[in-house]
């Protein structure tokens, strides 16, 4: 059903969002007398540059009244805002209590409620969201004949085949419902999506109920003036997924697990747990005999299946069993082809390994205490017997996730031999300032430290010169940017070669332990 002024007002009244409609000096609870109640809006947008005749414009965020001047005399047909903008436009204004919630409600209606035609899976957690989403998407794609869509922090896939780089972990609600409509029109039956804490903080998924929600883990992150003021606020936002899902899969031993179980109980939804090793859980992953990336996964009370993952690390096996548990709770059982599809997944920039002479380099997105600790645990488990010399090349995002800076240093300073601090996304804060702050957290007097702001030069220094036969093994960890081909700087994307490309070029090799090409970009 098309979205009209009349149906928009009715929907907003139903959800207690409508305050009044303002056009000029006329204030009313009904549509303006000269506005056809049956004429549908032709488009919805939050960009004044796209607000042409017939469109409905959402004035969200730090919207200044003068922004309306960019619309011109012919558009929009109406606007939705929390303030009266009639001094800058003749278009009727739908004044609401919360423009972000209203945008989600009206966008869903405009695009014909595409979520009702999809089985929706939402995945939240501090780390592992992307890998878990790719694992589950690969298995669902295999079992459904390619009719599974994916929204992730790396790529979006709307047709089961083609991948396009994403801009946000969870898109704005308007974009989310537009993409869902495209997925439905492309024949998709399933949608797997990452759900960030910000998605609940700023109502990007308002009104959306997941057929299955997953809470992988939680650790302090994203605490800054621009994100969450406290860890409590960060955790609270992530906990909202329990109240907006029909069932929940969660890590068995995650921090505040009892509280999340209480959330699920209050929401009246069942909980399924997953774990690693000897943890008590409904579904478990265990290390298979020998070394490498072979694991046994399955229900704790049933037969286990051996898988050989293309992404190294026990933490990725935990992501695999999470995806396995989620597939089971969707009422599906993976066959050999589905498991093989998961085994093939390789995500560029995540645990990507390069080797030349006595140097082994890993490129990874590790960017906080938990992910850095997991990475170093892997290095110790895989190479510890050889007593390698370990160099870490990293930075931290400016203006955001301020708590990450100390966490990275704390996780690494007693486990690496050399720390090279370098550039990362700056936003409103320079990398030099961030790196100097990180350096102030170093308390290990034996740690060799330096700041090299040019990231390519920092990686080059970290890799050093080729070794000779018999030399001590050198491990070089390059973390934070992965395959990203840009830096965020003052709201702009500044081109960058990418950590994976820099390492491959300088070592003269490709990542050596890739499995077969999976659905992810490799």
TrEMBL record:
One of its GO terms (molecular function) is ligase activity. SUPFAM superfamilies: MurD-like peptide ligases, catalytic domain (SSF53623), MurD-like peptide ligases, peptide-binding domain (SSF53244). It comes from the Bacteria. Residues 123-326 form the Mur ligase central domain. Gene3D superfamilies: Mur ligase, C-terminal domain (3.90.190.20), Mur-like, catalytic domain (3.40.1190.10), MurE/MurF, N-terminal domain (3.40.1390.10). Keywords: Ligase. InterPro entries: Mur-like_cat_sf, Mur_ligase_C, Mur_ligase_C_dom_sf, Mur_ligase_cen. This is UDP-N-acetylmuramoyl-L-alanyl-D-glutamate--2, 6-diaminopimelate ligase. It comes from Bifidobacterium choladohabitans. The keyword Ligase applies. The keyword Ligase applies. Residues 349-482 form the Mur ligase C-terminal domain.
């Amino acid at each position: 059903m098309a979205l009209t002024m009349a149906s928009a007002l009715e929907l907003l009244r139903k959800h207690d969002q409508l305050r009044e409609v303002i056009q000029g000096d006329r204030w009313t609870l009904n549509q303006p007398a000269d506005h056809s109640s049956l004429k549908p809006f032709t488009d919805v947008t939050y960009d004044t540059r796209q607000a042409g005749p017939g469109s409905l414009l959402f004035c969200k965020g730090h919207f200044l009244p003068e922004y309306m001047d960019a619309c011109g005399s012919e558009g929009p047909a109406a606007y939705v805002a929390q303030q009266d903008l009639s001094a800058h436009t003749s278009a009727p204004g739908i004044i609401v209590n919360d423009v972000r919630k209203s945008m989600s409600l009206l966008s869903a209606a405009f695009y014909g409620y595409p979520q009702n035609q999809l089985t929706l899976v939402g995945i939240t957690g501090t780390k592992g969201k992307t890998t878990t989403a790719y694992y589950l998407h690969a298995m669902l794609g295999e079992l459904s004949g390619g009719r599974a869509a994916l929204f992730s922090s790396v790529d979006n896939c709307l047709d089961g085949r083609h991948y396009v780089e994403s801009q946000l972990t969870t898109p704005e609600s308007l974009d989310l419902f537009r993409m869902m409509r495209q997925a439905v029109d492309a024949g998709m039956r399933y949608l797997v999506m990452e759900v960030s804490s910000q998605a609940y903080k700023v109502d990007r998924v308002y009104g959306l109920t997941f057929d299955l929600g997953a809470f992988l883990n939680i650790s302090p992150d994203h605490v800054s003036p621009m994100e969450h003021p406290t860890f409590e606020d960060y955790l609270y936002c992530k906990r909202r997924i329990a109240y907006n899902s029909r069932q929940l899969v969660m890590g068995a031993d995650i921090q505040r697990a009892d509280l999340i179980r209480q959330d699920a109980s209050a929401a009246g939804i069942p909980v399924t747990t997953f774990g690693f090793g000897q943890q008590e859980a409904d579904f478990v992953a265990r290390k298979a005999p020998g070394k490498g990336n072979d694991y046994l996964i399955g229900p704790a009370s049933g037969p286990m299946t051996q898988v050989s993952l293309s992404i190294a690390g026990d933490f990725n096996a935990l992501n695999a069993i999470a995806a396995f548990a989620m597939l089971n709770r969707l009422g599906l059982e993976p066959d050999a082809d589905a498991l093989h599809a998961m085994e093939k997944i390789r995500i560029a920039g995540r645990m990507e390994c390069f080797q030349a002479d006595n140097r082994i380099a890993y490129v990874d997105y590790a960017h906080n205490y938990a992910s850095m600790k997991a990475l170093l645990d892997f290095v110790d488990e895989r190479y510890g017997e050889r007593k390698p010399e370990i160099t870490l090349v990293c930075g931290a995002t400016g203006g955001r996730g301020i708590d990450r800076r100390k966490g990275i240093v704390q996780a690494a300073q007693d486990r690496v031999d050399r720390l090279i601090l370098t550039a990362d996304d700056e936003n409103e804060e320079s990398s030099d300032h961030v790196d100097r702050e990180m350096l102030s957290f170093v308390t290990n007097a034996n740690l060799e430290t330096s700041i090299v702001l040019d990231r390519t030069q920092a990686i080059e220094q970290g890799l050093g010169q080729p070794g000779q036969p018999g030399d001590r093994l050198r491990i070089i960890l390059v973390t934070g940017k992965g395959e990203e081909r840009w830096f965020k700087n003052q709201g702009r994307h500044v081109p960058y070669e990418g950590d994976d490309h820099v390492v491959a070029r300088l070592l003269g090799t490709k990542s050596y332990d890739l499995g077969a090409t999976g659905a992810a970009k490799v």
